[in-house]
Amino acid sequence: MPKESHSKAADHHETAAKSHRAAAEQHGKGDHKAAHEHSTKAHEHSTNAHKSSTEAHGKSSGKK
């Protein structure tokens, strides 16, 4: 079970990173509206990644 939890957390981290890169690319192109949208998504994914990481850590250490 802990492996699944860690994989879920890793997936969220990867998705957040992709959104951050997309935001940076849009900023570089001067499309600040699209960059803001990507940044907002990146923040959501980062929040989910943190939540999943915390849950995975709890499961790994025997805490709930």
Give me the secondary-structure category. mainly alpha
Strand content: under 5%
User: What's the order of the H and E elements?
Assistant: HH
Span between termini: 13 Å
What does this structure look like?
- It contains two helices and no strands.
- With 64 residues, the chain is an all-alpha fold.
- 16% of the residues are buried.
- The mean pLDDT is 90.
Q: TL;DR?
A:
This protein has 64 residues and is an all-alpha fold. 89% of the residues lie in helices and 0% in strands.
Features:
mainly alpha
Walk me through the topology.
Layout: H1 2-29, H2 32-60
